[in-house]
Amino acid sequence: MMFVCTDSEPDEDRTDDCDTWAAENDAAGRRVTGSALAPVEEAVTVRVRAGELLRTPGPFAESKNVIVGFDILECADLDEAVEVARQHPMARIGRLELRHFVDLD
Q1: Is pTM, for the whole model, over 0.90?
Q2: Which spans are transmembrane here (predicted)?
Q3: Left (φ > 0), alpha (ψ -120 to 50) or beta: where does 78 sit?
Q4: 3-class SS at 82?
Q5: In which domain, by residue range, is 92 found?
Q6: What is the pLDDT of residues 44-81, one digit of tens each?
Q7: Inside any domain, residue 75
């Protein structure tokens, strides 16, 4: 999974076409799905403590950098996933976090 995040220190002050990146990786079979996320102002954090529901507006952490989208990638290995992420427009103005799925079986 690739989390698409903002960054307080972008390399460039422009946004390239993320739709083109998505279309190219969809066509190559490397991108399974992905989406932008609603603004952090619409986030809700849910916890249960001592049996009580704690519902807090906003993201779970105060941060200048927020997750704004995600992509599920199908890559042969981490090196390929890093190369796919390197080509994403947000790599220059944001940050991309890669994590593999854990097989719980």
Answers
A1: no
A2: none
A3: alpha
A4: helix
A5: 2-98
A6: 888 899 999 999 887 766 667 788 999 999 999 999 99
A7: yes
The answer to whether 101 touches 19, Cβ cutoff 8 Å, is no
What count of other Cβ atoms lies within 10 Å of the Cβ of residue 4?
24
CA distances from 23 to 17, 18, 19, 82 (A): 10, 9, 6, 18
CATH number, position 35: 3.30.70.1060
Number of domains in the chain: 1
Output DSSP code: residue 35.
E
Residue written as tokens 């599920």? 72
pLDDT tens readout for residues 21-32: 999 999 999 999
Residue 66: count other Cβ atoms within 10 Å of its Cβ. 16
Q: Which residues, at least 6 apart from 67, have a Cβ–Cβ distance to it below 8 Å?
A: 3, 4, 5, 37, 59
Q: Which residues pair with 35 in a beta bridge?
A: 70
Instruction: Report the 10 Å Cβ neighbour count for 93.
Output: 16
